Design the sequence.
């Protein structure tokens, strides 16, 4: 029976995954078609000759019937052929493959740091302010997280560069040449999410700590640390993870911007350049990749949730 | 901006107190921003765009934040940039709010199936990073201020659809809505009359937060080159212009950074302040005192811990128990809540070794508070003081050993469904004391627990520990809790209405095992209940509490013989006489 529950769960998640990817493929496909006016004219540029415009139209496949276009795009995506970049004439897949690891590594590092730090921070603050203790901490936490939240990732990045690279000169400001280069981008990308997520954890923890089972745990007179880590955290994880999908997914957006601050050779820089250059095959490919990561991340959170809290297997995440 | 802050009259102080510090700070900051957006271009417009020979200057009285590579005054540019930033951010937020709310409410006009599909798709869109959605729009419309505004605005729509659809949901299924439909009122009318007014406050909070997010994303697009284009500039553009010069002229990033933080912070403070105001629970708490403390009565002597000290309280009874040693002794226990109101008033009692003492009273009589304090677990929200609390040989008013106390005192609570941790396996929870305080290994503890399960005739004793609480019944969980008392050889078991949440048929079995367990351990039991029938069949002696005071003390025999004197006890007895569920199936000598 247990196996059966997991089968249903796996099938539902697989269906969600496929549906979301299909929507993403349609969305990226539609980019060119939603361009106001004559797309070929816009892409070729204002001072293009009629021949160039016609060539661009062929390159974009706009001279074909729309279903034919979609089918060739769709089958291309499935076989890993995203076409060639207009600018470099290099396969889009190669361009993405060479840059993806850089984006993935700072995003993954940022997510891990965010989860660990905000769980520890939120739980500690909730524990210390329980029953009106340490009111000052409550206030300080509220204000300081609000300030960090008001700091966009690029401002944090800029401040980090000025402090650690320019003034102190201890960390590199740009590039991805060594492991130390990861420090500042990861810090920049994680600080905002840490602020919002630790608020979330703290709010949820305040509820969890007042539950009867926490009183039971206190009755066993185990250490505060063990109460929090063993007895509170699992209950916190389920509620926190349900709500934190958004925050974690937004880190992918953060990664794109942070790359501009630290001259990071990842997908973010490439997608911005491709949009400015109107290099549509590359834009489509990168958005498909980044969006795909976001979808996989969300499904992964659901799976972790089901493992941490088996009750969600039966009910599933509430859709609306 | 200073003009806005300076007149701190008594009136504005009252306003601030009513609004709360966060909301008033946010409102003041945001008003300042709006004023700046209106006037700054008039006063600083020239300095901000005039190309001069004073290039790349540092801070000076003439140029507070220095100048850029074209000799333009950076302080002026930061102020003037406010207008465009504020306009674009407001426009984008407006797109999100208006489209989101309209669609989120209209979704209720659709047939249920379509609605589920749309909301399902929307929940996927909400979880999709807004910036990526914005990139799609930017790719369609090309880089520029207009396309960035639309992009960020569109990216914010799903969140508002979700909120307004969620807010509408409980209203749309209410009775009066279906009645209204029967009466021929259209859905649209219902939505406008009943749903929209309820949206106000949460929508304001989300809008304020969304403004902050929009500001970040919009300036972010400008920063990476997809938003506002030169020669126009907003904060993001200014920061992007300044950052390449961070090594030579770090001052360049200060202006736009501070402005971004001030504007974003203003929106954030407004949102948080509104949210804090709308949750009265939090507001009320801020004035309360610290609670959960147990102190020794200042005017009472230190405990002599002798039998004499126990005498006054037990004078009523001339019982055999006075010969056996005392396991729990409480003197002059006072409990007050956070505001100082007395909940328990001067309660004193003893429990002899091996004795089962019933503590009876209606809810609110202070019996649970008394028991919890006697276990050394003063709940949050109240404070306790006493001249003496000696529990299983430990003076709770002095320093105690957590390990010994955890081993010697075992607790069983009222509702097993909530006192077990839903996320942990039963065995892992119940062996906590034996593993942490008695140094047993995981397998040792599990084996010992299974043995106790077997002893209590719990079915499948070896598998039971691997189950999660939701897989077992309430009676089973309560018996498992009793097993954990057996596991540590507890000297005192404090049971707070352990059978109240159970079916009557299960109650009897649990009570019998309770009696057996305390018998085999030779442990004392403090048994709290509001059910005199249960108490009568189980307890050697009964204390009746009312409004925080002990009103009567009876032996079990006196109770069953109906020899209660106090009118309150009599009324309790009369109430119990109608429903006497338990026969004398439970232990009785």
Sequence:
């Amino acid at each position: 029976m247990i196996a059966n529950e997991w089968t249903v769960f796996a099938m539902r998640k697989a269906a969600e995954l496929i549906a979301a990817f299909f929507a993403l493929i349609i969305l990226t496909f539609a980019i060119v078609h939603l361009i106001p006016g004559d797309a070929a004219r816009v892409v070729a540029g204002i001072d293009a000759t009629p021949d160039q415009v016609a060539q661009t139209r062929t390159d974009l496949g706009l001279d074909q019937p729309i279903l034919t276009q979609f089918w060739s795009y769709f089958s291309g995506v499935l076989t890993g052929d995203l076409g060639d970049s207009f600018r470099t004439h290099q396969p889009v897949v190669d361009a993405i493959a060479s840059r993806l690891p850089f984006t993935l590594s700072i995003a993954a590092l940022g997510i891990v740091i965010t989860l660990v730090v905000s769980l520890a921070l939120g739980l500690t603050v909730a524990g210390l302010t329980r029953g009106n203790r340490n009111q000052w901490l409550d206030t300080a936490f509220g204000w300081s997280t609000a300030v960090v939240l008001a700091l966009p990732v690029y401002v944090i990045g800029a401040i980090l560069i000025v402090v650690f690279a320019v003034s102190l000169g201890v960390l590199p400001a740009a590039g991805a040449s060594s492991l130390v280069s990861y420090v500042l981008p990861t810090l920049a990308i994680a600080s905002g999410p840490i602020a919002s997520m630790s608020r979330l954890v703290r709010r949820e923890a305040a509820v969890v700590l007042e539950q009867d089972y926490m009183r039971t745990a206190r009755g066993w007179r185990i250490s505060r640390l063990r109460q929090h880590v063993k007895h509170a955290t699992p209950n916190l994880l389920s509620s926190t993870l349900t709500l934190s999908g958004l925050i974690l997914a937004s880190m992918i957006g953060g990664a794109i911007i942070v790359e501009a601050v630290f001259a990071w050779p990842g997908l973010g820089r490439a997608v911005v350049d491709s949009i400015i250059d109107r290099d549509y095959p590359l834009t489509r490919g990168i958005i498909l990749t980044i969006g795909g990561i976001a979808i996989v991340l969300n499904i992964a959170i659901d799976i972790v949730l089901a493992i941490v809290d088996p009750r969600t297997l039966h009910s599933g995440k509430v859709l609306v | 901006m200073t003009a806005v802050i300076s007149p701190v009259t008594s009136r504005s102080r009252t306003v601030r107190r009513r609004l709360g510090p966060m909301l008033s700070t946010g409102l003041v900051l945001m008003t300042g921003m709006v004023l700046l957006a209106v006037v700054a271009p008039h006063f600083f417009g020239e300095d901000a765009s005039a190309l001069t020979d004073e290039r790349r200057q540092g801070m000076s009285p003439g140029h507070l934040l220095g100048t850029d590579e074209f000799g333009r005054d950076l302080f002026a540019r930061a102020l003037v940039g406010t207008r465009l930033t504020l306009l674009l951010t407001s426009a984008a937020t407006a797109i999100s709010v208006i489209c989101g709310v309209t669609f989120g409410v209209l979704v209720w006009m659709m047939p249920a199936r379509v609605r589920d599909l749309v909301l399902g798709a929307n929940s996927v869109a909400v979880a999709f990073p807004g910036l990526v959605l914005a990139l799609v729009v930017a790719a369609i419309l090309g880089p520029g201020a207009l396309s960035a505004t639309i992009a960020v605005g569109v990216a914010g729509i799903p969140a508002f659809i979700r909120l307004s659809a969620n807010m509408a949901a409980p209203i749309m299924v209410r009775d009066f809505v279906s009645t209204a439909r029967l009466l021929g009122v259209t859905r649209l009318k219902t939505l406008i009359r009943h749903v929209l007014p309820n949206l106000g406050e949460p929508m304001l909070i989300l809008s304020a937060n969304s403004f902050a997010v929009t500001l970040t994303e919009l300036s972010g697009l400008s920063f990476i080159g997809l938003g506002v284009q030169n020669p126009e500039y907003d904060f993001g553009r200014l920061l992007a212009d300044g950052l390449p010069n961070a090594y030579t002229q770090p001052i360049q990033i200060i202006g736009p950074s501070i402005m971004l933080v001030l504007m974003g912070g203003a929106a954030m403070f407004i949102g948080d302040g509104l949210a804090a105001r709308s949750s009265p629970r939090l507001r009320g708490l801020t004035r309360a005192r610290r609670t959960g403390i147990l102190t020794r009565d200042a005017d009472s002597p230190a405990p002599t811990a002798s039998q004499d000290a126990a005498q006054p309280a037990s004078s009523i009874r001339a019982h055999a128990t006075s010969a056996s040693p005392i396991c729990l002794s409480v003197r002059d226990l006072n409990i007050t809540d956070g505001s100082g109101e007395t909940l328990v008033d001067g309660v004193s009692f003893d429990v002899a070794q091996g004795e089962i003492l019933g503590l009876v009273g209606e809810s609110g009589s202070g019996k649970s508070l008394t028991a919890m304090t006697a276990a050394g677990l003063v709940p949050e929200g109240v404070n306790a003081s006493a001249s003496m609390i000696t529990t299983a040989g430990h003076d709770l008013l002095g320093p105690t050993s957590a390990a010994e106390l955890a081993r010697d005192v075992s607790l069983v609570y009222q509702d097993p469904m909530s006192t077990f941790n839903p996320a942990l396996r039963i065995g892992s929870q119940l062996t906590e004391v034996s593993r942490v305080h008695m140094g047993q290994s995981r397998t040792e503890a599990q084996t010992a627990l299974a043995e106790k399960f077997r002893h209590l005739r719990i079915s499948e004793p070896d598998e039971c520990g691997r189950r999660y609480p939701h897989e077992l019944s309430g009676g089973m969980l309560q018996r498992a809790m009793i097993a954990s008392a057996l596991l540590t050889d507890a000297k005192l078991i404090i049971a707070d209405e352990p059978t109240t949440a159970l079916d009557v048929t299960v109650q009897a079995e649990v009570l019998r095992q309770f009696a057996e367990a305390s018998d085999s351990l030779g442990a004392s039991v403090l048994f709290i209940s509001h059910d005199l029938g249960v108490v009568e069949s189980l307890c050697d002696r009964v204390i009746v509490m009312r409004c925080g005071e002990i009103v009567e003390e009876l032996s079990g025999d006196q109770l069953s013989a109906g020899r209660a004197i106090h009118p309150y006890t009599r009324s309790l007895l009369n109430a119990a006489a109608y429903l006497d569920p338990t026969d004398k199936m439970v232990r009785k000598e």
Q: What stands out?
A: The CA atoms of residues 388 and 408 of chain B lie 18 Å apart. The mean pLDDT of chain B is 80. The longest helix of chain B spans residues 187-224.
